Structure formats: structure tokens, C-alpha cells
Amino acid sequence: MRKPIMVGNWKMNTTSAEATALVTALKTELNEVTDVEIGVCPPFVYIQPVKQILQGSNIKTGAQNVYWESKGAFTGQVSPGMLKDIGCDYVLVGHSECRHVMGETDEVINKKIKVLLAAGLTPIFCVGEKLEQRQDNTTENVIRAQVEQGLNGVPKEKIKEIIVAYEPVWAIGTGKTATPEQAQEVHSFIRKLISLISNEETAQGMRIMYGGSVKPDNIKGLMAKDDIDGALVGGASLKADSFVKLVKYQ
Ligand code: PEP
Q1: Tens digits of per-residue pLDDT, 133-168?
Q2: Distance between CA atoms of 144 and 1, rounded to whole angstroms?
Q3: Among positive and negative, which fits the CA dihedral 207, 10, 42, 155?
Q4: Is the CB of 233 under 6 A from ligand 1?
Q5: How many CA atoms, within 13 angstroms, populate the side-chain half-sphere of residue 180?
Q6: Gap between the Cα atoms of 137 and 121, Å rounded
Q7: What is the pTM assigned to this prediction?
Q8: Which of 233, 239, 243, 246 to mutate to test the pocket of ligand 1 (most atoms within 8 A of CB)?
Q9: Is the CB–ligand 1 distance for residue 176 below 6 Å?
Q10: DSSP 170
Q11: Structural domains in the chain?
């Protein structure tokens, strides 16, 4: 059985006061939840204060990005060791905004996944097709290329430490969520790919989250599908009320 997982991606949002208030409310409201793994990914500058508030709670923390070198003259970048040092659990890699706004390539994503695994951090490896790719029926080719290139050279026994997030670009922040059937189709495809790259046991144990306009009113349908193990949530993770409802979807 794969444990469901809900992670909030706050993106470049919140002030220090808002971050503190949001996570304080989540800590209180989600205190009793043990059957769902919960995480929040604040902007870098708020990770430590958020972690401090979360002490003693079941909510994990993640970063939204990382650089692949361990230290040195890389102005503005943050290393895996630094994130480990402050107690991060997860790091988002290959988010569609990094791929398509910041120009992150599959090669860079692959380097980041490798250094995160080496540092003992859990990569949340995001993949997803653009609208025109879905319309051209090339979704599977796009996802295959992203998964294969992202995991290129990752030792087979390490692949089980990764969480995958399927996030169709056309659904992120648009209010247009994939239907549970559309998402399930791609999730099942990703699981098959993982079994080919690694093995069936790893594929069956791997959690594959869905992301893209997940809201309290569509989570149940998504989570009812066999291969959907959780959600990576942007907009709806910025309000305690909606994120709490998502975590308590059952
Ligand atoms: C995301 O940031 O990964 C995301 C899925 O955003 P939203 O839920 O706002 O579509």
C-alpha cells in the first residue's frame, strides 16, 4: 500500500507573517492526521521559520529548487547540503515553471535528482506535457522523454527514493484540472515506464502525485484512481482552509 501524500507548493508567495500564520494554522488543524503524508514547500527564505513552527508536528518541509554543485562561486544558488543542513525533506525538481519559464533542461533536472539522492533528500520529480503536445497526441512521448532523461544514470536501487509528480502544464494554475481518467492514464503509463527502467517492485512502491488546479472539490475523484497517490498543490495550498480540506479528502 502506498501512503497518500499531499504537498503544498507555495511558489513565490507569502510574506513572512503570512507564511507563519499559514503554517501555524496547518499545524493545529492537521495535528491528528497520520494516514496522509503532508508537506509544504515555502520560498527558501521562509523554510527555517516554517520548520521551527512545525517542530513536533507530522508536516514535512521541502524546497522548491536546488543547484547541483555542493559549494563555491554560484551566486544566488542553494546547494543540496544547505537544504539538508536546515532539515528539508523534499525538493521539487523540474517544476513546469522552472522548465518553461526559467528554461531548465532535462540534463539539468537529471543532475539535480542525482545530487539530491546523494545528499539524502527526496526529489519530487515533476513531469508534464504542454497543451499543444496533448492536442497532437504526443503526451506519452513527452512524458517518456522527461522520465528517461531525468532518471538517466540514476542507480536502479535509488529510484524508489524518488516521488514523481505528473503535472500537465495546461492544468497548472489555470483552473482546468485533468479529469481523473486523463490523469490515471498518464500515471499508469509512468508506472510502467518506471518498471521498465527499474523493476516492478519499485514501480509498485513509487508514489506518483498529480498536480494541476487540484481543489477540495476535485480531489476525491482523482484520489479514487488506482495510480494517483497524492497531489502537488499550488494555489489551493496558500489558504489553510483549502489545504486542510485536501489533506482530509477521505
Ligand atoms: C503547482 O504549483 O505545482 C501546481 C500544480 O499549481 P496549481 O495547483 O495552482 O495548479
Answers
A1: 999 999 999 999 999 999 999 999 999 999 999 999
A2: 25
A3: positive
A4: yes
A5: 15
A6: 35
A7: 0.97
A8: 233
A9: no
A10: G
A11: 1-63+232-250 (no CATH), 65-163+173-207 (3.20.20.70)
